[in-house]
Each structure stands twice: as structure tokens, then as C-alpha cells.
Amino acid sequence: MGTRVLIPTGALGLGFDPEALAAGIAARPDIIAVDGGSTDSGPAYLGGGISKYGRAATRAEWGALMAARAEARCPLVVGTAGTCGTDTTVDWLYDITLEIARERGESLKIARLYSQQPNDRVLAARAEGRLIPLKGAPEAGDDDIAAMSNIVALAGAEQIGAALATGADIVIAGRATDTASIAALPLMRGAHPGAAWHAAKIGECGAYCTTRPATGTILVEIDDTGFTVTPMAAEAACTPRTVAAHMLYENADPYLLHEPGGHLDVAAARYTALDDRRVRVEGSVWVPSEAYTVKLEGARLTGWQTTSLVMLREPRYVANAQAWVDRLSGELRRQIAARMGLGDGDYTLDFRLIGVNATLGPLETGTAVPNEVGVLLVTTAGTQERATEIARLANPFLLHFALTDDEPAPTFAFPFSPADWPRGPVHAFGLHHVMVLDDPMAAFRLEVTEVSRAEAL
């Protein structure tokens, strides 16, 4: 019998089917593992050290998983706590955990794995030649690294395993690879490494590898030759196609997956339907690397933003929305220079035509003319006050600017009042590098706390 890993959902905050979770608990898992986040939602969360998901929703789901852990009598692990995995979001989820433990009157051993990196550590790694850019990495000189708001390293199975080795009931990990929390315990128990990492990749998003992705919960059982995937929702099924397809998800290569300490190669993997719901996978290979590396993610402040939205419905303006924006942009730049004394390097104006090309920009190929177009102006400057001042200068032009000089001034519609909304600080990703470590724990910090029943009460 192998190691049974119950994955309740693709990410803490996405929700799960309570009946599917109950079925998973009845299957007697050895560990419950859930991912807490990723870079999918952009750099703002890493830059600000905040969670994408609200506290109330996270608390409700985490409470249900803590109750499931108590019933299953197994460890509960979350990786990339609080969406971005900074020290602040680890502590945020830790505080939620303590609240729930007090309410439940539980005695718990809680391990916190911190992944945040001091800027000086990364600067030292660069000076020593241990900071290696990946393909497409941005320029990251000393000044760029020093300016990062937050830097995190992605923990792997070794770091999660160190936290589990403390005997913790609950592990709250900072930034980690999506697969690490699933692969760690099977690897500690001597499972086939290729199977452990492949199962972790397939299971990272919960029921996304099934015919019913929204059900959330699956069970992967990893042994010394391969792994088996079983959906926990009665209406869901795994097929060789749905399981194999997940290697394509968020992965540049359908056969290779890079992790700290090596890479997974699934070119020879075989996917076999055991019945109409379960799939067995064998043949995956783990290839250790010569150097142990962890990927770094960093975000830096790039400015402050204010947005404005105006709606165009007059057919001629809808059909010529891009020409109107091009003409308006030129006029606004002249007005900003004349009235505020600012040059192009002091701010940016970004127009997005909602209903035309707001998502793809110049890559858009659609030709149909919509009934209306929303023109979103995104103003970015060095301070919030300046960004908002520029947006307010633009206000009457958004409302009344004509397509040509020889026509009456039009009147468009602002859907909200006030028409400008300060968005606050704006961040950009600034690191796409790996850092070489002599010891897998050299860039991580582990803290263990025991909460007694008396303390909880």
C-alpha cells in the first residue's frame, strides 16, 4: 500500500464539494495537502504581501479542512499560504489557525515554513555567481534587487519534508512549488520519485484532472512503481486523457517539469484506466540535478494608478473608437505638458477598449462592431496624487472630446461618480531566476509552535 494524499481543492479559496471531501476522509488519507496560491493573479499580492482571497472565505474553508484533518488523524499542509507566500501571509493564516483551534479546543503542533528572502541574501548570491537567470528573465542588477518590495523562494519537497519531520499536525508553508506539498510525504516514505512528482503535478489543481473540475477533491496514491488517481465526487471520473492532459497545464514542456533538485520526465509514462473512474500511471522518471536550486520571485513598486471609465454608444464613435483614443491621447499629452509641466517620462496613459481589444490589445483579430465600447483609461505616475490629478485633467476630455475638429462636442457617459478611482500602488515582477543553495534549508526558516488544549480554551 502506498501513501495516500488527499487534495481537497486546486487552491485554498476556490471551494470544494463537502460530500467529496467527506468521501476523501473515509478513504483514510495519510496527509491532506492543498495549494494556497501562485503568481497567476499578478504581482500586486507579492508586492504588497497580501492575500488575494478574503479572510472570511479563507477562514471558512481552512476551518473545514482543520476539522477534516482531526477526523482523518493525519497532517494538513498548505503551500504558498495567503496566495503569495510572504512571511506576512504565513502569519496571517497562522493567526486564523489559532482562532479556529481555540474555537475547537484543539491541541496542535503547528510548523511554519518561511520562504521570504532578505534582499541582501539575493544580492550576495548574485555577487557569488549563484543567481542564475531563466529564459526570458528581466534584468536584475544590484539596484533592481535592492528595490524589490518582497522576494520569495519556492520551497520544494525537502523543505516541506523538514516541516513534516517535526511531527507537526499542521504545516503552513510560505511560497512553495504547487507540487511540493503533495510529493513531500511520499518521498519521505521511499516512494518512487518519478511517481511522487508526477502524481503531485497531476494532483496540484485537485479535480482539474477529472471530468468534473468544479468538484475539487481527489485522492492520489503513490507507491514504489507508480500512482493511482481517484476522484472523490461520485459524478466525477478520471480518464487517461484527463490525467495526461494536466501535464500541459501551466507548463512549458508537456514532458518535463523542473523542481528544486531536479526535473521530472514523463516521456515514457503510461496511463491506464483501471475502471471507469480511476487511472494508473507508471513509467515517470525523476532526474536529479547536479546543483540544488530554488526559483526566486520578486516584485517591485513601479508607481501609483488611477483609473477612469467612460462608455461610448454613438455608432460612429463605437466604430472609430481606436481613432478617437489615438486622437484623445495626443491631446491629453499636450494638455498635461501645458498645465502640469510633465513629460512623457513622468507618467503613462494606457487606454483599453472594453468590448474591442481590452484583453489582447494589438493581437485581437475580431472585426465585429459592438453596440457599445467601454474606454478604460489607466493612469500611472510616481505618486497617487499625481496619477489622480492627471485622471481628473482627462475627465472633461473623456466626456466631451470630438472625433474631428469640425463637429459638435459629443457627450458620453460615466457609469460611476466619481469618475476616477485611485487604485493605489502598482507592482511588477522583477525576478525570474534560480538561486543555487549548498543546503536546501539555507534560504528557509522553520518555526514550530505547540498549542495546548488549555491554551486554546
Strand content: 25-35%
Radius of gyration: 25 Å
The count of β-strands is 19
Task: Give the N-terminus to C-terminus distance in angstroms.
Answer: 39 Å
Helicity level: 25-40%
Secondary-structure-derived class: alpha+beta
The low-confidence runs, each spanning 5 or more residues with pLDDT under 50, are: none
Task: Give the biggest sheet.
Answer: 10 strands, mixed
Compute the number of helices: 14
Q: Can you walk through the features of this model?
A:
This protein has helices at 18-26, 44-48, 55-72, 87-104, 119-127, 142-146, 157-164, 180-188, 193-203, 240-245, 315-319, 321-340, 384-400, 453-456; strands spanning 3-7, 31-35, 76-79, 108-114, 131-133, 148-153, 170-173, 218-222, 226-231, 256-259, 262-265, 270-273, 279-282, 285-288, 292-312, 347-354, 373-381, 420-437, 445-451. The chain is an alpha+beta fold and 457 residues long. It folds into two domains: 3-298 and 431-456, no CATH class; 314-412, no CATH class. The strands form three sheets. A ten-stranded mixed β-sheet has the order 12-13-9-8-1-2-3-7-4-19, sandwiched between helices. Strands 5, 6, 15, 16, 17 and 18 form a six-stranded antiparallel β-sheet that branches. A three-stranded antiparallel β-sheet has the order 10-11-14, covered by helices on one side. β8 (218-222) and β9 form a beta hairpin. α1 (18-26) runs parallel beside α3 (55-72). The longest helix is centred in the C-terminal third of the chain and has 20 residues, at 321-340.
